[in-house]
Design a protein that fits this description.
By secondary structure, the chain is an all-alpha fold. It has twelve helices and no strands. InterPro entries: Homeodomain-like_sf, HTH-type_TetR-like_transc_reg, HTH_TetR, Tet_transcr_reg_TetR-rel_C_sf, Tscrpt_reg_YcdC_C.
């Protein structure tokens, strides 16, 4: 059938085959990455097989190998996806000059990441605790330059007398440790926290406490409204 006739009658352009294939690819990769994150976070790299991932993703094993030739390729991609999402959250440092708003937004995004992708956070933590055997080069080549940019912004705030003196690198470490704690130690939070409150609710409480304490420690005014987390 002539697609030009269809277009004239319906007013709708036919979807190119390449666009359809791209959509299928994107959907499959998303399924595989989600399944891989869960499997690796639960069983570790050695304890996970591509067959495990394929079953959880409800896809043939051949599909997993089509998109990711080896288990190591897939493992690295999952780790990088988590780190890149975290780095994107810090873009506010480069676009927002107000320290209170920048820090509040960054902390909020990092806490939200713990709620939305706790398994990715735990997987990254386990990898680094093990000595970062798979991501050491990535951390050096990608994460370190990004961190230097963030520290440079914090240093500029200090030169402009916008915040109290602080070691910018240590400040970033503190934010990472506090926000990722909600995901990495979720079981401990559930055991030690208020039994009447869900884990998600306790993360909300921790988020508000963290924003308030950190901003006050830097000599900043805490906004009347602290942006909440969407769960």
């Amino acid at each position: 059938m002539d697609t030009s006739t269809i277009t004239k009658k319906s007013g709708v352009l036919p979807v190119p085959k390449t666009a359809h294939k791209a959509a299928i690819r994107e959907a499959n990769v998303r399924k595989i990455l989600a399944a891989a994150t869960r499997c690796f976070a639960t069983n570790g790299f050695k304890g996970t097989s591509t067959g495990d991932i394929a079953r959880l993703a409800n896809l043939p094993k051949s599909n997993v190998h089509y998109y990711f030739p080896s288990k190591q390729d897939l493992y690295l991609e999952v780790l990088k996806a988590t780190a890149e999402a975290w780095m994107q959250d810090a873009d506010v440092f480069l676009s927002e000059h107000d320290p209170a708003q920048s820090l509040m937004h960054y902390i909020t995004q990092k806490c939200r990441a713990s709620l939305e992708n706790p398994e990715g956070s735990r997987l990254w933590a386990n990898e680094v605790i093990s000595g970062a055997p798979f991501v050491s080069d990535y951390i050096t080549s990608e994460v370190k330059p990004w961190l230097e940019q963030c520290v440079a912004v914090i240093d500029q705030w200090q030169r402009d007398k916008l915040i109290a003196p602080v070691d910018g690198r240590q400040l970033m470490y503190m934010i990472w440790a506090s926000t990722q704690h909600f995901a990495d130690f979720a079981a401990q939070i559930k055991l030690l926290g208020d039994k009447e409150k869900s884990w998600e609710s306790q993360v909300q409480d921790g988020h508000r406490t963290l924003v308030t304490t950190l901003l006050r420690g830097l000599g900043l005014t805490v906004p009347d409204t602290i942006s909440g987390l969407i769960v």
